[in-house]
Amino acid sequence: GFALALHGHQHVPAVTRVSRVLRSSSRKELTVAAAGSAGVRSSRLSDEMRDNSYNVVRITNGGGQIEARRYTPGSPPETFGRAGF
Question: pLDDT per residue over 50-62, tens digit each?
Answer without folding.
Answer: 678 888 999 999 8
